[in-house]
Specification:
two-stranded antiparallel ribbon, single chain, 15 helices, mainly alpha
Length: about 350
Amino acid sequence: MMALLLHDVPRHALVLLGLVLIGLIAAPLLANDYLLTVLIVILYFAYTGIAWNVLMGFAGQLSLGHALYVGLGAYTTAALYVHFGIGPWVGMPVAILISVACGAVIGFLAFRFGVAGVYFAILTIAFAEFARIGFDHFAWVQGSSGLFLPVANYASNDLINLRGKPVMFYYVILALTVVAFVLCHLLLRSRVGYFWQAIREDEVAARSLGINTFRYKMIAIAISAGMTAPAGVFYAFYYNNLFPEQTFFILRSIEIILGPIIGGIGTLFGPVIGAFLITGLAEVLQEFLVAFGLDIPGVKRVFYGLCLLVVVMILPHGIWPPLARLLRLDKRRHRQDGPGA
């Protein structure tokens, strides 16, 4: 397993990655409450970006409705906890199975009947909107009134039920992000990963070579949906309240994909770098404006749009590929960019 994980990775890249991981582990020792909250949000978007990247970055299928899987994961575990006292770690497999099943339905309808490109993206938006409207009238989860999770206190950490201080949630989302990163690294080095890349580059050519494109696209959407569901579990137990208008809103899906787009779609580090840059810089901008007594509604969304504009015009492959070449973090120097970076 370790030999596969470290295959084709430069030694100095491993050293740098280890230092970054050590820094993240030690961050709560130095960060105040506000900075810790920002780091939690950054890691949340890094994790969801990694999950989305499996479908779009690796297999080339654009989804604009990934908030659907976040919402299903959140509402499933929250409802099980509120109504039956079932803890989030026990409810998480149920949430993953429901998200995978929903992703499989979307995938089957799209891939079996040749719905691709922008039409596939519209289909994913439609399912997220169906869920938003449905949960808005779903009395068992309180509908539009919102589902609230009971919070006894924040004085002690209860990892089993995900009740406790922000530092506990920080390490939970950090662990989830590390696991997702390692899983994607292994997937890219597997037979499935190479088939995904072939489908992404030229699906017709991949099919002519004998690759069952329907099967491997179904695997991609199932894995991506299943990986996204734990983010919903984290979201529910960290914020302790769920509203369909917020959870399934298309803006949540857009926020998920911003990190991978800015960092580099199809790369391993892209979603992480993108999440740190766009979320971190947005918070710095917000604090800067507050320091000068300015309160501009929607300033973060304008900032996100400007970041996308700059990246599309100057770095169309994202920030990570040229950064990786600059730092010589990829042994395959003939590659200009791509999923292995």
